Every structure is written in structure tokens, then in C-alpha cells.
Amino acid sequence: GGDHTITYPILQAVAEKHGPVGLVHVDAHTDTGDRALGEKIYHGTPFRRCVEEGLLDCSRVVQIGIRGSSYDPDPYKYCRDQGFRMVPAEECWSKSLVPLMAEVRKQMGDKPVYISFDIDGLDPAYAPGTGTPEIAGLTPAQALEIIRGCKGLNIVGCDLVEVAPMYDVSGNTALLAANLLFEMLCVLPRVKTM
């Protein structure tokens, strides 16, 4: 539910308990902008605000599925400068993400990790019900590989954001989102699955 702004106060609370956390962030956009319409807090800025407040362990931030147009000639410079691992959507096309997630698990280690999943990380063919769709995104199978690939990590929280019911005429986006949230609950520490 909600737009990606909700992750910012959640990570403030998580960091209060756990200190800076690693982040597995699935999205079409980096959400590291500085301002929009003069505002510093909106759905395109949460992770910049988190970096500024020291809520993230930047050496353990992975952003997967990033793509789309930008107003900036180098839209990923900020992320690279922070030490984030960027995995553009085109590096994911037509392949399994199981090997990527093995690398991510090594990078995250046993320290606390938060998962933030923007539904627009998926291609709008599968998840049209979102406010900022971008073509050529991830598939539902790849989304499952990412989430299931987080099993065994020290996950301290997760979210799924940016589902917009008014754009979800078929209900497919809500169905996909609900299933992805269920999968996230299944990979939480100490959850037993069959």
C-alpha cells in the first residue's frame, strides 16, 4: 500500500532499534531524488533522506530493476557515489536472478536487512496498477526469485508499495502484490515453511 514515502519513517524506526541496515530495493526508480515541486519528502526521495540521516548501511544497499527516463543526464550518479549496488533492469532481462541473489546474500551477511519492493519494479504488463509505470521491467517469476533469494538473511522488516487501485482495472496488480507480500512474510527469520 501507500507510496514509497512510507519507507522513510519505517526505516527511521528500524534504525533506532538496529542501527543502519542493509537494503534490498526492487524498483524502476532509485527514489534518491532531492526535491520535487520544492518538497524534500515525496515518493521519489525516501532513500536520499535515509542516507542523509545515516539509516542505511550504504555498502549493503542493492537496487534491482532500475530503468526508465530521467530529467538528469546521469540519474544514477548519486547512488554510485553512496556505494549502492545498482542492477539495471536490462541486466535482468531473460535470465534467472538466482545467481544475483546468491551474491546479494553474501553482500548482506548476517547484519539487519530491510526489503522494500515497489510494484513498478515489475513490467506494467504484469502490474499496470501503479502511478509511474515503466516498460521493460521484471517478471513475476524474477520477483519471486528475488524475494525467495532473501531467505536466510537477517530481515528486520519489509514493505510493498505504489499499488494504485484506480489504475488496476483487472485487479492483477493487487493479486500480484498480495502474493509478493505473502512471499516476503515467508522469508522472515524463524518462519517455518513446508
UniProtKB/TrEMBL annotation:
This is SPEB protein. GO terms for molecular function: agmatinase activity; metal ion binding. Keywords: Hydrolase, Metal-binding. The keyword Nucleus does not apply. It comes from Himantopus himantopus. The keyword Transmembrane does not apply. GO terms for biological process: putrescine biosynthetic process from arginine, via agmatine. Belongs to the arginase family. Agmatinase subfamily.
